Sequence to fold (248 residues):
Amino acid sequence: MKKYFFLLPLLVVLFSAADSLAVTLPTFQVGLTETDDPQQVSVLIEILLIFTVLSMAPAILLMTTCFTRLIVAFSFLRSAMGTQQMPPAQVLIGLSLFLTVFIMTPVLREMNETAVKPYMAEEIGLEQAFTEGVKPLRSFMFKQTREKDLALFFGITKTEKPNTKDDVPLSILVPAFMISELKTAFQIGFILFLPFLVIDMVVASVLLSMGMMMLPPVMVSLPFKLLLFVLVDGWYLIVGSLVKSFGV
Fold:
């Protein structure tokens, strides 16, 4: 240790020099400034709004688009076929997302033309852009929502029934739309189950008549269900029917 003692004076000098130096650190300030134009929104508020929308994007996607009906129908299809984890959940979610974009393209295009472009060109304010941008989405949801579901939430909130569709608030339209989508998806799932259920019943009856009670019917019926699904071009029929159910 003695051979390192000569370093002590050097360390003392360095610490003394560091204390004598005036160290300056950069600072970051966030503030709000006034503007003479009421239509302008500060950059900070726009960033906060963007991050808020991004954080709520999954919920918005689930609640206001056709994603719910698609993913529930595909999940029922996989359960009816009895293929366990095939196709994987990631594949079904990816297919549902791309079909959602395909189905919602006219709505998104109209929202872009009536709200986003005018707002970016500073022709309208943020509040008017939101109002105009929601109109195409409201029109899409109204087409898929049953009046019974709307009446349910009006009754729960004890709100007077509106005279026009424009008077229906989003807080009532969105949950009513979700319930309608779930009911439609379960109806589609019931229809998807029927042909595969018939195959399961036939195979179970044949195995029982042959005395093969120890052989699981699912193992025998699965190849027949896959064969039927491939022969009728099942993905073509199901995807086509789901897309057409939205009026596309």
Residues 24 and 228 are 75 Å apart (CA to CA). Confidence is low (pLDDT under 50) at residues 1-8, 10-15, 17-22. DSSP finds ten helices and no strands in the chain.
